[in-house]
Structure formats: structure tokens, C-alpha cells
Amino acid sequence: MKIFLTISLIFLITFSTKAQDIIVKNLDKEITTNFQNSKSETFQIQNYSNLDKSIKIKTKINNLQGGATLQICYGENCQESTSFLIVNVPANSISNEISIVLNGGLSNYKETAYFEFIDMEVDQGIKKEIMLNVSNERTQELFFSKNDVQVKSFFPNPTVKSAIMEYSINSGENDAKITLQNVLGSIVSTYELSPEENKLTISTEDLNPGVYFYTLTIDDEGLATRKLIVKK
């Protein structure tokens, strides 16, 4: 009887230890974005064991509201939150970056998503909770940043009458501008970003409702593009 109990205890300890062979690194507890914007959170899985691991990532979440969507991406493989993703992590190594992408809809939304990282060898793993937050607060996400140039996204977005972009250009040597285009690629307007200013306000009242794209160009090089939605 003692021998049986000893063997069982050894088995349970070994099983529990195997479940602790992986850790999830650099995963924040909250992902926040604004209406019609996307926010990506990246993290890695580290395998401390001497065996290759297949890790199944599963999510449990109530119905996303207001058109918001959630994806898990690894390389070019992206899965909706209703499915699962398998990541292979070699022995004694760390995975490439895995992304959780929250796409904001058209209404406020706040919900907790539950993630499981399951070691498929032992069918056990790690559980994480992440708060998903979609807000219409008049805050600006960073659009572009490099050296002495920092530009934030237009807000509000969607917009009705006007949109505001805050920026900082510390050098007068940079020729910076914003080009606004419609979905057909035709230029609607071009706006200079003066180093002596820190805010650009554009009027959208005369624009037809729909989707537009704005591009930051510095010294004739297009550096970043984002979407601006105009509503009436």
C-alpha cells in the first residue's frame, strides 16, 4: 500500500512539474483602444523543459459588442477568439512574438477575456485574465514616432465636423505634411505640419461621408497611413 501511494505521489509531482514547464512573458492585463481603431498586444511563451512543446491558446469571452473583434495571431496564422491557436515552442527556447489584436467597434465596450495556455503533452497549463476596453474618449494614439518627430492620430475618429492631430517636430529641417485621400486614392487635401505649431485641425463638414486615408510624409517619403471615417 505504501509503495502504491509513493508511486502515485511521484506521478502527481511529475505531472504538476510538467505543467509548470512554460511561462507567458510580457503579457499585459489590459488592452485598450478607441472606436474604429486597433490595438495589438504582443507576448511570448517560454519553454523551460528539455522537450519540444505544443501550446494550445484558447479564449473564453462573452459576445463582443458594438462590432468589436478579437484575434490571436502567430506569424501569418490568425484565429478569431471563438477558435484556438497552436504554437510550437522548441525545448529550452522562447517563441516568436504572439499577438492579441483588439479591433474597436462603434460603441463603448468593456469585458474580461480568459486565456488558457495549455501544454498539450499533459493537458494542463496557465490561465490569464485580460481586460478588453473599447472607448470613445477623446484621446490620441501614437501615429508615428522617430528621432525628433512625434505625430498622434486624428481624433475623434469617426468624425463629423472636424478632426484634430497633435504633433511635435523639433527640427525645422523636416518637410512634414499630411495627405488626405479618398478610397479611390485621389488626393482630397494636403496639410503642412509646421515645426512652429503642435496641432493640426481639419474641417470635415464638406466631405462626403465615408472612409478616407491620411498619410504622413516627411521629405517626400510616405511613412505611415491610417483610416479616418467621416459621418454625417
From TrEMBL:
Signal sequence range: 1-19
Q: Does the keyword Signal apply?
A: yes
Residues annotated as domain Secretion system C-terminal sorting: 155-230
Annotated keywords: Signal
Q: Does the keyword Signal apply?
A: yes
Q: What's the protein called, per UniProt? A: T9SS type A sorting domain-containing protein
